[in-house]
Specification:
It is built from 25 helices and 18 strands. The termini are far apart. By secondary structure, the protein is an alpha+beta fold. The strands form two sheets. It has a 16-stranded mixed β-sheet that branches. About 10% of the residues have low confidence. It folds into three domains: about 220 residues, 2-Layer Sandwich (Endonuclease, Chain A); about 190 residues, 2-Layer Sandwich (Endonuclease, Chain A); about 200 residues, no CATH class. Helix content is about 45%, strand content about 15%. Helix 3 links the parallel strand 3 and strand 4. The protein is globular. Helix 11 crosses helix 12.
Amino acid sequence: MNIATDSFLEEGKNCWRRSRAQRFGWLVDADEYFVALRDSIGKAEHEILILGWDIDSRTELIRDPDHPDNPSPLAQTLEELVREKPGLRVHILSWDFSVIYLLERELLPAQSFGWQESERLHFELDGQHPVGASQHQKIVVVDGVLAFSGGIDLTKARWDTRQHAANDDRRRDPDGQNYRPFHDVQAVVSGPAAADLRELVNERWTNATGESLPKLEKKADEVWPDDVCVRGHDVDTAIARTWIQPDHNRDIHEVLQLYLDTIESARNYIYIENQYFTSPQITAALEERLRGESPPEIAIVMPGETSGWLEQATMDVLRNEAFARLRRADRHGTLRIVSPVFDELGDTTINVHAKIMVADGNTARIGSANLSQRSMGLDTECDILIDHSDCGDLLTADLLAEHLGADFDDILECLASEGLFAAIDRYNGGPRRLEKLETSAYDLEQTVLRPMAQIADLEKPLLRNSGGAEKKDSDSDGETMHTPASGWLFISFVAAILGLWIYLGVQGTGGEFEPRALLDSLRKAAAHPLAPWVAVPAFVAGSLVVTPVTAMIALCGLLFDPWVAVPTATAGMLASTAVNHWIGAHFGNAISARVPAPVTRRINGIAEASDAWSLAGLRLIPIAPFTVINLVAGASGVNLRDFLVGSVIGMGPGIVLICLSVDRARAALQGEAVFDPWIVVAIAVAGVAIIGLRAWQQKARKSRD
């Protein structure tokens, strides 16, 4: 197979596999995808493989009443195909989702897919991930010769048409609830590229179940969907992954590297569509291009708002930070950050869920990866890129035609002759348009909830585990990863918080959760005399599931008055430290097996002196999470008394600073007077103490070196 040699693509660096797609196309919005999928699986004779973040058996594939296959609920369709075709096998692998999604997901999906009724229809849940991670790939492979891959899951609240009509009754979930317009893109490939995606799905299946998929014994016929336009013949493709593995040296970050290399290679324009934008690495790469000489035109299309205030107070906070950096770097006016606006929708915004990057018209990328820290370094992702073709310009023109309500050919001609911004400007301003996405610095709500943003967009696993399903085939290395007990505890912890939230009934008149109502309710509960005594064991429970200690301290500052919050947070920190230390002391071997050796060596190096002042240094530098430091200290035989005193020295000023700062933000949020001279003085003293401790720690480290 002849692959272009002048490409920036490199297997093992920014992609997993390079090959050819005999045919390549894309499907904009789920109506196109679901119809094409129904057509292809209807032609299948041997195998249908489905891999997803969420898969709902009730998903209606056909919603046109005049279509011959209407209705086509997913499970029913697959069951009928298996009954009609004796040689057909179906394998479905869905993420074993966390409990926090319980109210949003189908409760018993395995039973819904009729796995008990047919030996040829297999449904499995994939729980082989680090704590806090998810299976985020969205892939369907038909007979090993055709594959769909991109951002669209076969689940509820995904279906929509290119029109995104305001009153489309078909845009309802299986429970009959309306949802906002939804925009996404799915790639479709045939030939060797499809075979590669089948191999990828087999890897995921084996990792989750311990068994490989059956081999395809017969060559399959063509199953390309009849109504899908072929955008490229015999084109170069590359598949990039994010996959975090038990062995630190085997972590796969091809998705991130491919983004960085694509940004660096662009000369004329970069067109991006994405749900999130929080990755500091991607931000830095775009900053560098914007500050350079002759930067490309960069257009970033994002949803006007994310779904719900909690996401707005977490992911949107990080997004606003990134966009502020990009706008400051935009020396030449070559940056546009926009969102689609349709007048007929009124105040309703379109949920842009696509994961697209086009560079210079000859590189088109469609995938599952958001421009977030999670997608770069935690969740399991798959992106497919088409190189050395005109597919990039075609995809950009197709997407702009939808957003601007313009003719595809007109946009394509302008894009090719005058550039990206010219194509947008010429056809912008009508009832369908791209408007500047306004961002702001922190408001008071976002400041209060800021610690939650880091939890929502984890960059690395909370803990690693090398256990899991064992592959039964002889060529397996037997090493997989799964969510350990601490992961389920973490999930339960979060679920309990959300359950309390729902129980309190803190809703506005429109049924949406309101932060102020929630805060008022929690403050009232925290006023109970026993509340601080409950908070201390809550700290311990949080530490056992590796909840960031800064988040727990901030929560104390939010719920209690400062003179209660500071001693409560300190007591909770000390109790957590003692319990974690005890666990480390009694299960040292297990701790050593889970914590990377470099981290252990650094902690032990600082703790060698084993006096309180030296141990304070463990709290002043970001070696590892709070819980991990405690466990390793216990496993290493560090004296508990000195460790506790050192923890107070190292963390005390920070506890004061966090509690008081959060309290002032809380006061502003509730309309109280913000300025209090004593609190201002205390914050200043705590800040000076932190600076002094860090300076001392650096001096001590140099002395040891």
